[in-house]
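Researcher: Next sequence.
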Amino acid sequence: MLPLLGLVTILAVLLAILSKRVSPLVALIVFPIVASLAAGFGLETSRFILTGIQGISGVIGMFVFAILFFGILTDAKMLEPIVAALLRLIGNKPSRIVPGTALLALLVHLDGSGAVVFLVTIPALLPLYQQVGIDRRVLACVISMAAGVNFLPWTGPTLRASAALHIPTSAIFLPLLGVQAVGLAFVFLASLFLGLREEKRIRQLPPSSPSLIPVQNRSPKLPRHFYLNLLLLIAVLGSMISGKVDPVVLFMLGTVIALMLNFPSLKQQQERLIAHAPTALMMASILFAAGSFTGIMKGTGMLNAMAAATVQHLPQHAAAHIPVLLAIVSMPLSLLFDPDSFYFGVLPVIAGAAATFGVAPVTVAQAALMGMHTVGFPVSPLTPATYLAVGLSDISLAQHQRFTTPYLLAASLVMTAACLAFGIFHL
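Model: Next structure:
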């Protein structure tokens, strides 16, 4: 019963969000609670919810103060000279801006954190996208592709696969260098396609269109405290990327300093906090709901039950083709399993089943990396980074999933085809 109940719950949440019939907040809270009560867990459901929320409390705090931090710097007009400099450097052509976005995301993602790449790149580039008139969904999509394809040895999925199967990360990653190069080539080609499409769309818009903000050709006057704000931004982001201080602490301190520096009076500070409170509150509430969702799915055992059922129902004649099959479905599976449940619960069982047919466990790990919370994490309702992407881009989860999922799935399939071409997988 638990596997079916878990599958129905996740599908109900996804369909409700994509159909826009209910808000993500409602879907993430109501459906799991109903499923838990139907499974007979009763009041224990509240404990599952608290455990789930506690697990992402740091992410929630980080997100709230990140919104306030970047919002205050934007109010101080710190980003305007940066946007103007970027426009002078690369022009206002989306065909240059969008591939440049992919390159920046790749560089930032060298630290291996999906949340960091969204926190750094989206606030920095969103004003540029708005000024040129590029669709915000493109921004979230391109950064998602770049971060997803960039499965480095120190990223979460690679480390989890290594730990779960007791295989060195180098043994998993090094044979996939060519595959990742193919994936990155796809990312830049897709980015160029999106940029050219946006360029064509913007040219067809009337000059008075509200979606277009006139592009400034002259360099704007540097705002007050510009260099101090820039130094603060570099200090906060640099410390965050270094990993030596927890991001929530950095953004809390950064928010306080930015507020006192740019808006010294109490009235000004209250006005700025009130101005950004709706966005912070909305996204924090969705993250609380996501924590409730994952807490219930884990606490009731529905995720583990789904994993066991998946392996039990695997046709014996298909077992020898497990790597190819897993690689093909790995990206969609990110919508059903959270990273820990899959890599520590499902992957060892699949690898054990494949080993009986002579398939090396390292090949199964490599198959999982073709999409399971690599390419798949930016649209999964089970990862907090997804909500960071949509919140910072000022789009809805449904808009992001509808627009971005086809590109992420295509990237996953292209890399799977590369694995076959390079002889990593065999049919």
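Model: The radius of gyration is 22 Å. The mean pLDDT is 85.
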